[in-house]
Task: inverse folding
């Protein structure tokens, strides 16, 4: 039987937490966020959607790329690749699709980004199918589904106080087969069922160029605040900034680190160059670029549409700039 | 250091400054010796490519490579205008200081396709820097290219770059060099006026010709208008190299897109026909 | 090795720096812990400099200027005298011991005074121990483990005070009045645009921009009209930072805006700062009974009132061209603990507890800048905390940097924040920003008797760069 009770799942995760870092959904001041946990004591089992996506585990808000040390006239660079192995429990299908979208850019497109690639390599995903959709969810319109196992290593489907388990990849096997609770698992399917292929229901990307100069973008952008909430909560947005920042140095060495951190094309200084010229100084140019990037430029270059239909941006935007309104407009003839 | 079998595109090669000289007001020419095997990266260098220069502790910024790296790619030139935080810090450095170089990046000019054609190079201000390797290529392989015209401009004489090389350029066979400044001083005895005015005066023929323009975006725009509207060039004949704010240079950070194209990997060299098809304006 | 405090002293050229020299010449003992930095005037020492000094590891900061009345620049030291107490209150509120900052006056001839102050301050800082301020490790997470500090009503009970009961006024009348006003203004071409509220397809109230008289029917008024629409005014009126539009003096853009009483105070602050001209804006003021919690994010029709509304004494706009609704000219008596709820709870904690509280709040921050973008007052062309050269704070999303940004912004809003709480509502991580900004407002009221935005006058001292020209 492929069925595990919640207690069995908790016990299994507790054992795994002793070997690797376990990351799971926890409640932080009312927000469900993925955080490292020592055991399953604080894990939230029943939730619709986390506030931030698992993207922040693989593409952290701030990440050191290398350490720079100036020793006299010499400079020493030390690359700081991530090494930790971890397991994330409770990943929703939309978040996993977001990772597949980022894979298309960071891994499948040369050159490979080693920081992201290493984290993907070192992390196992245990997914949870969605029991209910949120009011802003639209994953099935962009090629996903509440039970889509794409990107997961193990998929759990909640059912009557327990979970039906499917082991999908070898990585999933590695953290399950050796535990007695998985004995007698009737099938180990290495690939997602072909029956679960979902189509795109939004307008194809070819609809977009003709709408580039429409007044719609200025109208929609009038209320936009040019903050960065939508890009930061999005499972597939990935713009980043790179800069050197000084570190408190010791031993007379001049130490700094090169970091990269999240950024968004919505922000005013995104394209501002030294000297002050800013090609995208108007809000409507920036907002338009964000949607075109997600639904036209990204699929043109890399394949997948850069949206998983999770609806986080819709719920988080303080002025109700709504991606589904945009998609509805573009899809109209 | 990144090793060749598993390169980290975000990790720079180390370089040592072997020469720093003022070539114009607030513009310095940096000659960098690539260390730790970084020279290999420049073996397949094409004129028009750019690289990121790091001022360690401040950050890095993209600059057009201003020469054909000599000695097997060991020495790389950059002409850098002091304008922001990275360039200000670079201007403080002197011979012997270490910088980082990540590159070469971008698509570069298709110099092979230009063989057998008349070339017109149009440079404005610091925009002349990525055009210098084009000029050097033509000079080194003169018989591969036909008639060669260089139009060089700046706001005033103190902002013209590579002034000590003009004689060498003029001395090249079948080559014309035309200079203009927007505002002259008493020592100036060449044309005065905008580059577009000079272009109309020189009036190069569009037959079997290629133009290569680099300069401020507004200059590129107006130069192209003159070429197409007044001199009969087709947009496909006009090559430009564009700039944008960049942070990774390898197509990951998403910042430099102009519509569907990324300036760092699909550019920075484009024909004006391609630029015209981009949804977004580069201005 | 015993701890030796690192102290940075900002000494003004004309008096205190020379005073320090005098102490040296007279061979008076001053501690070696103090590193002097010479500035033209104590008024030059802006709070960003002091906060940055602490972040870079100083255990104490000493600011010495000329005696009041003796400043070489007349009023430079007045500025220091006004700014420092507010900064100290802010830093104390964030968990830093306020005695780590000292402002004093030393004249050029007072070598003994300099030496005495230097020694005293060094011992004070020595007794406080090394500073615990900068948390260098970006992987540490801070989670508040103690009882919740609720800045909502009923921190300790579920009951809402009687004066804060939300009832349903007649929205239809106000809606019709706003529509009529807007249609008339647009039809007569008195304004180019009316900024109001509409209900979107999902049922959420959101800002609306109406350019044609026939579209005026989009506008509504309801219990969810939470946004501070004045945040859009600077740009709509042709000024402001979104692109450098050239101002055409003969034809300045005009706009009408629907404002609640709190929003109308924002307009006063902006007028005092010369953000736009009074004749450019037509103010449609609405007498307000309060806005629902959750407004703008979900479309439920009733519920608890927002905290800021329950604490609000000003139920009628303070400036308007047209008034919609019944003017309420009496202040409502609100018990003091309800005006700044939650602040006394934090004040009662020890500094380390407060520091832990704020670290746990800023830990969640994702530096999306929604707070800043939603705020009508935050409109600097280049935000101090978003510079490309990382002058005041790094660009990373680490807790130190986020705290520096929020505290800096709170200081910059002192005397300018009108308490609309849009920053807190926009924050996706539920960070209780109103607890900081209202603390600053409380300090401004206590020290200077000043409330932002009640009239179009500048605040007692300028907290942002630029704006000194407005001061008398």
Result:
């Amino acid at each position: 039987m492929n069925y595990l009770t919640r207690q069995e799942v908790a016990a299994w995760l507790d054992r795994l937490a002793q070997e690797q870092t376990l990351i799971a959904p926890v409640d932080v001041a009312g927000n469900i966020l993925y955080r490292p946990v020592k055991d399953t004591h604080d894990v939230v089992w029943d939730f619709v959607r986390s506030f931030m996506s698992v993207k922040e585990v693989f593409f952290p808000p701030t990440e050191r790329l290398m350490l720079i040390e100036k020793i006299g006239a010499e400079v020493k660079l030390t690359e700081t690749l991530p090494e930790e192995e971890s397991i994330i429990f409770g990943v929703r299908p939309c978040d996993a699709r977001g990772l597949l979208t980022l894979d298309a850019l960071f891994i499948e497109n040369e050159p490979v980004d080693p920081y992201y690639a290493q984290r993907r390599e070192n992390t196992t995903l245990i997914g949870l199918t969605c029991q209910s959709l949120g009011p802003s969810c639209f994953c099935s319109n962009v090629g996903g589904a509440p039970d889509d196992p794409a990107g997961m290593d193990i998929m759990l489907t909640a059912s009557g106080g327990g979970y039906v388990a499917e082991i999908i990849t070898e990585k999933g096997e590695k953290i399950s087969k050796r535990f007695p609770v998985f004995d007698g698992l009737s099938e180990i399917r290495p690939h997602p069922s072909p029956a679960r292929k979902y189509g795109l229901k939004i307008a194809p990307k070819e609809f977009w160029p003709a709408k580039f100069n429409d007044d719609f973008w200025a109208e929609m952008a009038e209320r936009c605040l040019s903050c960065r909430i939508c890009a930061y909560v999005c499972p597939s947005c990935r713009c980043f900034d790179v800069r050197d920042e000084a570190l408190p140095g010791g031993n007379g060495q001049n130490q700094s680190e090169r970091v990269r951190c999240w950024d968004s094309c919505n922000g005013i200084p995104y394209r501002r160059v030294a000297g002050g010229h800013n090609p995208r100084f108007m809000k409507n140019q920036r907002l338009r670029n964000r949607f075109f990037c997600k639904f036209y430029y990204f699929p043109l270059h890399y394949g997948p549409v850069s949206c998983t239909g999770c609806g986080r941006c819709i719920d988080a935007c303080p002025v109700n700039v709504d991606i589904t309104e945009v998609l509805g407009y573009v899809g109209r003839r | 250091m990144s090793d060749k079998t598993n390169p980290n595109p975000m990790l720079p090669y180390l370089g040592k400054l072997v020469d720093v000289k003022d070539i114009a007001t607030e513009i310095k020419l940096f000659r960098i010796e690539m260390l730790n095997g970084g020279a290999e990266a420049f073996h397949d260098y094409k004129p028009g490519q750019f690289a990121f220069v790091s001022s360690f502790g401040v950050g890095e910024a993209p600059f057009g490579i201003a020469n054909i790296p000599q000695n097997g790619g060991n020495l790389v030139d950059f002409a850098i205008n002091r304008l922001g935080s990275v360039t200000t810090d670079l201007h403080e450095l002197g011979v012997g200081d270490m910088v980082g170089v990540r590159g070469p990046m971008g698509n570069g000019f298709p110099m092979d396709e230009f063989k057998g054609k008349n070339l017109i190079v149009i440079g404005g201000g610091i925009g002349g820097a990525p055009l210098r390797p084009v000029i050097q290529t033509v000079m080194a392989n003169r018989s591969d290219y036909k008639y060669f015209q260089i139009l060089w401009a700046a706001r005033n004489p103190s902002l013209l770059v590579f002034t000590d090389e003009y004689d060498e350029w003029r001395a090249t066979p079948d080559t014309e060099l035309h200079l203009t400044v927007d505002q002259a001083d008493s020592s100036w005895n060449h044309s005065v006026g905008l580059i577009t005015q000079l272009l109309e005066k020189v009036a190069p023929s569009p037959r079997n010709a290629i133009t290569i323009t680099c300069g401020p975006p507004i200059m590129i725009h107006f130069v192209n208008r003159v070429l197409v509207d007044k001199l009969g060039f087709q947009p496909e004949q006009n090559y430009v190299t564009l700039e944008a704010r960049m942070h990774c240079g390898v197509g990951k950070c998403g910042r430099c897109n102009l519509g569907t194209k990324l300036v760092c990997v699909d550019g920075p060299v484009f024909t004006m026909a391609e630029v015209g098809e981009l949804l977004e304006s580069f201005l | 090795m015993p701890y030796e405090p690192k102290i940075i002293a900002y000494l003004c050229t004309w008096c205190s720096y020379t005073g320090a020299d005098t102490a040296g010449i007279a061979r008076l003992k001053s501690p070696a812990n103090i590193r002097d930095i010479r500035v033209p005037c104590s008024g030059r020492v802006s709070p960003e400099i002091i906060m940055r000094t602490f972040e870079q590891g100083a255990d104490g900061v000493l600011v010495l200027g000329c005696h009041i009345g003796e400043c070489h620049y007349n009023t430079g030291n007045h500025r220091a005298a006004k700014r420092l107490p507010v900064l100290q209150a802010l830093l104390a509120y964030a968990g830093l011991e306020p005695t780590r900052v000292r402002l004093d006056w030393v004249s050029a001839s007072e070598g003994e005074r300099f030496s005495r102050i230097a020694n005293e301050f060094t011992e004070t800082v020595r007794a406080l121990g090394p500073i615990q301020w900068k948390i260098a490790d970006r992987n540490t997470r801070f989670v508040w483990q103690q009882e919740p500090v609720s800045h909502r009503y009923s921190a300790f009970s579920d009951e809402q005070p009687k004066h804060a009961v939300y009832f349903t006024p007649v929205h239809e009348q106000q809606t019709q009045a706003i529509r009529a006003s807007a249609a008339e203004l647009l039809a007569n071409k008195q304004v180019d645009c009316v900024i109001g509220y509409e209900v979107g397809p999902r049922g959420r109230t959101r800002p609306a921009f109406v350019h044609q008289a026939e579209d005026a029917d989009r506008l509504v008024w309801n219990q969810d009209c939470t946004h501070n629409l004045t945040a859009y005014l600077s740009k709509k009126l042709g000024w402001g930072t979104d692109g450098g539009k050239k101002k055409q003096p003969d034809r300045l853009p005009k706009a009408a805006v629907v404002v609640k009483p709190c929003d109308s105070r924002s307009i006063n602050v902006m007028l005092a700062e010369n953000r736009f001209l009074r004749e450019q804006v037509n103010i449609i003021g609405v007498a307000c009974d309060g806005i629902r919690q959750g407004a703008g994010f979900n479309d439920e029709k009733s519920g608890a009132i927002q905290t800021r509304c329950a604490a609000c004494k000003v139920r009628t706009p303070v400036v308007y061209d047209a008034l919609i609704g019944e003017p309420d000219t009496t202040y409502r008596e609100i018990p003091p603990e309800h005006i700044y709820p939650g602040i006394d709870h934090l004040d009662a904690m020890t500094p380390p507890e407060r520091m832990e509280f704020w670290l746990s709040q800023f830990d969640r921050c994702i530096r999306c800048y929604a707070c800043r973008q939603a705020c009508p007052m935050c409109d600097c062309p280049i935000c101090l905390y978003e510079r490309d050269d990382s002058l005041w704070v790094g660009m990373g999303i680490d807790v130190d940097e986020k705290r520096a940004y929020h505290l800096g912004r709170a200081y910059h809003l002192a005397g300018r924040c009108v308490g609309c709480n849009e920053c807190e509502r926009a924050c996706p991580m539920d960070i209780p920003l109103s607890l900081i900004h209202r603390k600053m407002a409380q300090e401004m009221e206590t020290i200077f008797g000043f409330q932002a935005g009640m009239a179009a006058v500048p605040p007692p001292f300028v907290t942002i760069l630029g704006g000194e020209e407005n001061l008398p």
